Amino acid sequence: MRIKRIIRYWSPVAFQAGVIFYLSSIPQDDLPHIEFFMLDKIVHFFLYLALGLFIVRLLVNFTQWRHRRRIVWIAIAIASFYGIADEFHQIFTPGRGVEFGDFLADCIGATVGAHLIDVYLKLRKKWTTRQNLPDRAARGNISRG
User: Half-sphere exposure of residue 132, counting CA atoms within 13 Å on the CB side?
Assistant: First the structure.
């Protein structure tokens, strides 16, 4: 049971980090040349949005922390640190380099992803709590008259 839980929550984080590392390892000459305004930043944004989302999901299910705000900010910090490491890694990739704009897109994406999953989890908890409440009329607390 524990192995399934580890795979369920750790594998999306590891997979997303691996995708980011792989894409950062592609030399500039091998990348497709698509003319679209800020495509590079958009790709960074969505890659790190998913990473931030997956890290929050992991921390919520693998830590004893109950302060969701702390979990969100730690997830953003972890994803942002990975963004710094990713930019550093690109120094060693032919034709690639460090760009502050890429790092900024990484941080913004991680922030949006972390907050999106946080809002989703809050709404899901609120909705499931309402679904599990017994009917007040059936308990006699509300008059039917």
Answer: 6
Single-letter residue type at 81: F
In a domain, 30, yes or no: no
- Per-residue model confidence (pLDDT) at position 39: 86
pTM equals: 0.82
Residue closest to 106 by CA, chosen among 58, 38, 52, 33: 52
The rounded percent of the chain whose pLDDT value lies above 70 is 89
Q: Is 33 exposed, middle or buried (0-12, 13-18, 19+ CB in 10 A)?
A: exposed
Domain count, the chain: 1
The span from the CA of 67 to the CA of 142, in Å, is 36
